[in-house]
Inverse folding.
């Protein structure tokens, strides 16, 4: 029994030493001392400029900014995706309506799946 306790103690010591050794290089990473590449610096700058923007507007801004377009040129690009949520809302409204219809008709399983598919495609509801 004494031998198994020794082995356990040695194993635990090695496990903790291994974990400490593995964590050491990550904490002493020289990334802070290393200057940013041009692309990394552009990412930092664009990220600062994008504060307050969210969702599609932020994506469009970051895309144009990272491509090197000015922020004035980025504004029209950000306006284009703004039209997309309107189309997306109609899809959401359609989904909500089809779900309500399926619930009213008490459809389940494959019947519900078929109904939802045809309803979302805009086909006339058969079931």
């Amino acid at each position: 029994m004494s031998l198994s306790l020794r082995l356990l103690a040695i194993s635990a010591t090695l496990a903790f030493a291994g974990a400490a050794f593995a964590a050491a290089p990550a904490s002493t990473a020289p990334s802070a001392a290393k200057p940013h590449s041009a692309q990394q610096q552009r990412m930092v700058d664009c990220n600062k400029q994008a504060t307050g923007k969210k969702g599609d507007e932020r994506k469009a801004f970051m895309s144009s900014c990272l491509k090197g377009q000015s922020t004035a040129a980025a504004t029209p690009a950000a306006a284009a995706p703004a039209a997309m949520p309107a189309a997306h809302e109609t899809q959401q409204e359609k989904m909500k309506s089809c779900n309500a219809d399926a619930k009213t008709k008490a459809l389940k399983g494959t019947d519900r799946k078929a109904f939802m598919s045809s309803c979302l495609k805009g086909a006339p509801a058969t079931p």
In short: The longest helix spans residues 71-104. Residues 72-86 have pLDDT under 50 and may be disordered. The radius of gyration is 28 Å.
